[in-house]
Amino acid sequence: MSLHNPTVPRPLSDPQSQPYWLYLLECEDGVYYAGIAIDVEQRFYQHVFGMGAKFTRARPPVRVLAAREYASKGDALRAELRLKALPRARKLAFFDAEPEQAQAVPSTA
Fold first, then answer.
1. Does the residue 28 lie in any domain?
2. 3 part of a folded domain
3. pTM (2 d.p.)
């Protein structure tokens, strides 16, 4: 009798090597919500069904406005901080800029 079990799952790939996405949602009342995820569509539906952030439980999202892929979770988190530092009027433009241009937060003057 063999001890080999072919149904034993293989180790998952390293989550740190997966790309992450920074996304911007439009929620009820027109407010924006930014976050990061590996799968934006899945995360959107988590927010819609109340399994996302506390913010989106009170203001369910209506649609995904924009998303940008980053090589790592750390890169996506840093981009999220830069995005959240911008005034609302500049958030969509953040996604239109080339990734290198989005690295620096422009002055609000």
1. yes
2. no
3. 0.77
CA 59 to chain centre: 17
Any alpha helices (H) in the chain, and if so which ranges? 40-48, 54-58, 73-85, 88-96
* CATH classification at residue 37: 3.40.1440
Number of domains in the chain: 1
Name residue 15's beta-bridge partners. Answer: none
> What is the domain extent for residue 49?
16-103
Count of CA atoms in the C-beta half-sphere (13 A) of 70: 25
pLDDT in tens, 26-82: 999 999 999 999 999 999 999 999 999 999 999 999 999 999 999 999 999 999 999
